[in-house]
Amino acid sequence: MGVVSQPMSGKSEGAPAVSPERRTAVDNARKSWINRLIDPSRRNNLLFFRPLRDRTLDLSSSPEDAIASLINPSMSPVKLADLVNSSDLVTQAAKLQEIRKQAIVNQEERGLDTLFLALGMARWPASDDGRDYAAPVLLMPIAVEQTGTDRRRLTLTRAGELQPNLVLLHHLESQKVRVDAEQLIDLVEGDDHEEEFDLAPAFKYLTDAVGTLIQQFTIDSHYIVGNFSFQKMAMVRDLQELVESLAQHDIVAAMARDASASATLRSAGSNLQLPEIDAVTPDQEFLVLDADSTQQRAIGHSLVGRNGVISGPPGTGKSQTIANVICEFAARGKKVLFVAEKGGTGSRSEETGAEEPGAFVPGSARCRSVATPSTRTSGGCTGEDPRCAAARHHRCSSAVPRKTIQTE
Known about the structure:
alpha+beta, seven-stranded antiparallel β-sheet, four-stranded mixed β-sheet, about 15% strand
């Protein structure tokens, strides 16, 4: 499925005051979206962690000085052999190889960095008599590298800033527990130069904040290497903080099933006439893949500024149409944001030159350049056309796009 829409500005120009009905609809939808993003079920290993035989590595018995070296901001590599007993090196190395392999898959296919060292484990009983809560307190991104051909020769290196488990903090907030995330991180000793490694001040701050609001809340000093994904929390924060902007935006309100917003979107561009397909001259057409009449009409709707959803069964040309839309906008000097949850989505873009240096790579975490227009045999974009050259070299931007294409 693909969505073509106007930019996500905070408020549409000339928008009337938000009605109480619209505000209620958006607020209800906003809460529902937050709950769906968080996943409070026992599938979420950021709330209900459990050790897995081949997918987690427990370093809780590692020497304190080795753990301190690992979290040191100097980001120096630490040998796995310094973290585990020599008698367990083969088994632990095999585990770490599996964890590393899964992290690579997550990065390549979903654009997510999921490899972390979890520091501390918060535990408290569940109210439904099911498996108790077990939530990592702090997460530190790490990199695992193999040196040489020996699969046991692995090193772990700190790869970024220490951060709190935002899923845990969100859950605590739902229980009326207020925790300052920045203060929690600041209390970690050993995260700065010239400090002795000590997590106790940070753990004490969290347990004091919980107080009696959650019974039997404790924190264990566990160190776990594994794959943890909480990137959706950025969307959760936006949904929590941009309440007014969300209510004012027609597309968001329509997604929340507000009737007035839906009517406004349906009427957008209704006074504009699409040119006949055969009337479009070759110097005004920049299709890089074949398109039938229905696909060309969908592209035409996008070009005149109409909002729309491209949907259909597999193999009906949705990705092909999206690739054409990208190049049509790029040829006109427009900025395009392409979003794909799965690495395979948008594979049609590869046919337009993604194998060339600097070309757009679908499913990657970054957008380097839009797809490269190629010569067509029947009109449209040719290598000599200067506007095609502009499309070929036009760069994507992370700034607010004039059009948004989102694939699912």
